[in-house]
Amino acid sequence: QVELVESGGGSVQVGGSLRLSCAASEYTGANYCMGWVRQAPGKERETVAIVYLGGGITSVADSVKGRFTISQDNAKKSIYLEMSNLQPDDTALYYCVSDRNYCPLTGTHEFDSWGQGTQVTVSA
Fold first, then answer.
1. Can you tell me whether residue 90 is helix, strand or coil?
2. Are 23 and 79 in contact (CB under 8 A)?
3. Whose CA is closest to 20, among 106, 116, 120, 121?
4. What is the pLDDT of residues 68-77, one digit of tens each?
5. Backbone phi, then psi, for 50, in 5-degree steps?
6. What is the pLDDT of residues 77-93, one digit of tens each?
7. Do the beta carbons of residue 116 and residue 9 sit within 8 Å?
8. Which three-class secondary structure string do you get for 22-89?
């Protein structure tokens, strides 16, 4: 199983920015993909951004479009989530995820690997 290690969470005020990082122990497979899933207390799990590493294809959820950007650095086996104009609704535990074949943006897909999670807290 791939090991994923996140970093970069923290507490910010409304309108602030954060950058999350995730390093993978390996990249394997032509369709290998990674992304970010968040879970807030009392809310459904939400996949906010994904990237297919082979072709660099990215997608972000409508709820964060225009504010969050996902990027990759294949040499470092890492992905990043740039978050700007953060709002209280963005407060959640953010998990880095990966899958050998499929990273849907909708639904509650059971990704192959999950990181330990990093907390993002946005206060007014």
1. helix
2. no
3. 120
4. 999 999 889 9
5. -140, 155
6. 999 999 999 999 999 99
7. no
8. EEECCCCCCCCEEEEEEECCCCCCEEEEEEECCCCEEEECCCCCCCEEEEEEHHHCEEEEEECCCCHH
